[in-house]
């Protein structure tokens, strides 16, 4: 462990001895990973995991600010935990992550929820043990939302899965898409050194992980801030050689700088899965420009074409925003047309949610909630049909599946994922978790596939 971190933990002492913590995570995979680091930091000062809020001495909410909905969830959770705090004055309630990082939101939390003990942002994560100690010893509300870019190398991680693991390669974002809060709450891009990433991947392989997912808001920017500018494609090629790993995934790719070299690396890599998550956001050039995405629909469709041409059987998924300020019926039709042309395996559509301090939040948002809902349904209907059609084409194919375990909804079935990240249900009397098997697809649905062991 890093000397600075060891010092922080040493200074703090085992203040969590005999106490239990609970972490509730909202938002994306990067946040899930941050929660894994927070869990490890809490355990390093003596805390052990709780099973429910009622058994906890410390409840930590790791928040997301990307849309209004996850922010509202924080208010409702804090409302619920107020009752617990009234019963147990020693309960520590902490609010971490992207929402806390914004000074306006931190101010709102401070004014509105007096029972919160600690508010800290994404940058303060390495200081968690010290912050907890301060909150306990002073009994005052502690706030740490300084944007200070402390190095995260060497922090411990308590991974939640035993098969699949998150591996961040680049933190932050420099793109400032006009609607997006992420660059405001995650700071500027910081790439991790290739040797640190490879070392972590090797450790994961030794620990028995079969699949790693490389994380970054835009993995294609990887290396731009490092000496010698190593590219993401080069990093993938090196990781492909790590013995013991079976699969390497990565997300997210920004269409403006997805290189042909990256397409080749995915094509050539044995472990690199044939799946690109390539958010398009809109099919209208007018809207793309207002979004500051810095590509056109033509460029995007050309990329999709190149990817499909190079990598047979590849899956491409996307994100869309509907109801961006000024979006006309024609813009919506352009997006629908792009869906038909790109034929995504899946696309996640979100209703535009204005975010404070973003440039788009200054534009007039004239569509009603109903109109936005209708537009969302319209795009979803098209995409669901396409997803079903694409999955139908997989019938009778034999695909490599990494088994994850028994299904949560149908306990008699086991589930796994194809290299293209599709969920497959199948039956087998023997538990196959962690195994790579071949499955013949017999059923195709919009969201998943069914099959039999080949
Ligand atoms: N870094 C990734 C995505 C991060 S946020 C990328 O560049 O694509 C995940 C998704 O949330 C985005 O792709 C976008 O579709 C959606 N999103 C971001 N800000 C939003 C907002 N203000 N309102 C609605 N959806 C938003
Ligand atoms: Fe947000 Fe754009 Fe950065 Fe993605 S690339 S995190 S959408 S600003
Ligand atoms: Fe992720 Fe939400 Fe933050 S999407 S980066 S947790 S704002």
Describe the structure in brief.
This protein has 14 helices and 19 strands. It is α/β, with parallel strands linked by helices and 454 residues long.
Characterise the protein shown here.
The chain is an alpha/beta fold and 454 residues long. The longest helix is centred in the C-terminal third of the chain and has 24 residues, at 369-392. It has helices spanning 3-12, 29-44, 68-87, 98-101, 103-112, 128-138, 182-186, 194-206, 232-239, 260-268, 285-290, 297-310, 329-342, 369-392, and strands spanning 20-25, 48-49, 58-63, 92-97, 118-120, 142-144, 164-168, 170-171, 190-191, 211-215, 247-251, 275-277, 315-322, 346-351, 398-406, 414-418, 423-426, 436-444, 448-453. The mean pLDDT is 96. It starts with a helix and ends with a strand. The structure holds S-adenosyl-L-homocysteine, iron/sulfur cluster (SF4) and FE3-S4 cluster. FE3-S4 cluster (F3S) binds at residues 27-28, 30-31, 64-66, 98, 181-182, 185-186.
Question: What are the bound molecules?
Answer: S-adenosyl-L-homocysteine, iron/sulfur cluster, FE3-S4 cluster
Strand order of the largest sheet: 2-1-3-4-5-6
Overall residue-averaged pLDDT value: 96
Percent range for helical residues? 25-40%
- Calculate the terminal CA-CA distance, rounded to whole Å: 45 Å
Name the overall outline.
globular
Query: Biggest sheet, in brief?
Result: 6 strands, parallel
What is the oligomer described by this structure? single chain
> How big is the Rg?
23 Å
Structural class: alpha/beta
| Strands, total number | 19
How much of the polypeptide forms β-strand, as a percent range? Answer: 15-25%
| Tally of individual helices | 14
């Amino acid at each position: 462990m890093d000397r600075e971190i060891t010092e922080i933990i040493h200074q703090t002492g085992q203040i969590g001895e005999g106490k239990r913590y609970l972490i509730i995570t909202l938002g994306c995979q990067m946040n899930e990973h941050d929660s894994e680091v927070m869990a490890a930091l809490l355990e390093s000062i003596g805390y052990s995991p709780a099973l429910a809020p009622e058994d906890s001495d410390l409840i930590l909410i790791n928040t997301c600010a990307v849309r209004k909905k996850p922010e509202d969830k924080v208010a409702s959770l804090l409302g619920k935990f107020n009752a617990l705090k009234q019963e147990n004055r020693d309960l520590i309630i902490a609010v971490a992550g992207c929402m806390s990082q914004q000074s306006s939101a931190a101010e709102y939390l401070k004014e509105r929820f007096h029972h919160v003990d600690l508010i800290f942002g994404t940058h303060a994560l390495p200081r968690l043990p010290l912050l907890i100690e301060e909150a306990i010893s002073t009994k005052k509300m502690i706030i740490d939302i300084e944007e200070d870019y402390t190095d995260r190398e060497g922090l411990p991680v308590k991974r939640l899965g035993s098969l699949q693991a998150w591996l961040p390669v680049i933190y932050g974002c420099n793109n400032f898409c006009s609607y997006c809060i992420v660059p405001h709450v995650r700071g500027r891009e910081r790439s991790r050194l290739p040797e640190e990433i490879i070392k972590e991947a090797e450790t994961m392989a030794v620990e028995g992980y079969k699949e790693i997912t490389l994380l970054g808001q835009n993995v294609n920017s990887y290396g731009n801030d490092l000496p010698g500018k190593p590219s993401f494609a080069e990093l993938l090629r090196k990781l492909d050689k790590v013995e013991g790993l079976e699969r390497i995934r990565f997300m997210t790719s920004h269409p403006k700088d997805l290189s042909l070299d990256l397409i080749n690396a995915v094509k050539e890599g044995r472990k690199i899965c044939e799946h690109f998550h390539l958010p398009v956001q809109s099919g209208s050039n007018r809207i793309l420009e207002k979004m500051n995405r810095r590509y056109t629909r033509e460029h995007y469709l050309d990329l999709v074409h190149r990817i499909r041409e190079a990598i047979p059987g590849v899956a491409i998924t996307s994100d869309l925003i509907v109801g961006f300020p000024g979006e006309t019926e024609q813009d919506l039709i352009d997006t629908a047309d792009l869906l038909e042309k790109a034929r995504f395996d899946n696309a996640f559509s979100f209703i535009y949610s204005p975010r404070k301090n973003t440039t788009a939040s200054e534009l007039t948002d004239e569509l009603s909630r109903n109109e936005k809902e209708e537009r969302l349904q319209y795009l979803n209907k098209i995409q669901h049909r396409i997803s079903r059609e694409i999955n139908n084409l997989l019938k009778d194919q034999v695909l490599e599946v990494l088994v994850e375990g028994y299904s949560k909804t149908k306990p008699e079935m086991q589930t796994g994922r194809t290299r293209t990240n599709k969920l497959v249900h199948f039956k087998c009397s023997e538990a196959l978790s962690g195994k790579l098997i071949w499955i013949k697809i017999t059923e195709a649905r919009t969201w998943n596939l069914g099959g039999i062991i080949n």
